[in-house]
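Listing S7. Sequence submitted for prediction.
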Amino acid sequence: MSGKSASFPFHIESYTCDFTEKATLFGICGYILDAASRHAEENGFGYAHILKDKVAWVLSRLSIKMDAYPAFNRTVGIETWVEGVDRFFTRRCFCIRDEDGAVLGYARTIWAAINIETRRPTDIPAWRPDLAEYIMPEKECPIEKFAKIPPVEEVEPSMGYSVRYSDIDINKHMNSIKYIEHIVNVFDLAQFRDKIIRRFDIVYLAEGVFGDKLKLYKRDISENESLIDTRRGEESVCRSRIIWE
């Protein structure tokens, strides 16, 4: 049992870096989700524990703000804790530090507990009242909370793809990180050479499944801000906002 908060180390391998020799946004987000999973498992409410109840945690929203990205062959520590538990959602926060203890960034996530047979939300306090023991509302997470992301309309799609085997995760739908990988691909390579993604927000609105044909629609709000709407036909599967610096 790791307690109300815990920090987990992650070594920055080459496959989580891009041509700048720094960890990618989706690489860091992968570590964040891994830290959440490990913390939940160690405290009795992870995948292996809740599967017997036919329940799975599904990521609903993620916001991350990075001051700097860690370099190849370095180690980061990701601390995580539960900020709150509502009827259908839990709120989990993260602090990303380099191996010297300096803060690199913070993240917030919102998770739903979904019945894997009905695909309907589970009443979390009624199902697991013990989760209230892990809430740390007093612990600071200095990143602005989620803001609404509007749909992107009246533009041509920037790219499209079909959901294939490598996109599907343990819950039999499209992996949360795979959306982010595809989203950043709508930008030119030079963008990543000249700038970094300072803030990224994503809201997951529907489940992508094998064989789905998705299209990404991008609207530039300013030189450093873009909205990306990932759609299946007319339905938004997820929406995201990227702010560059």
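Caption to Listing S7: primary sequence and predicted structure tokens for the chain studied. The longest strand covers residues 103-115. The radius of gyration is 18 Å.
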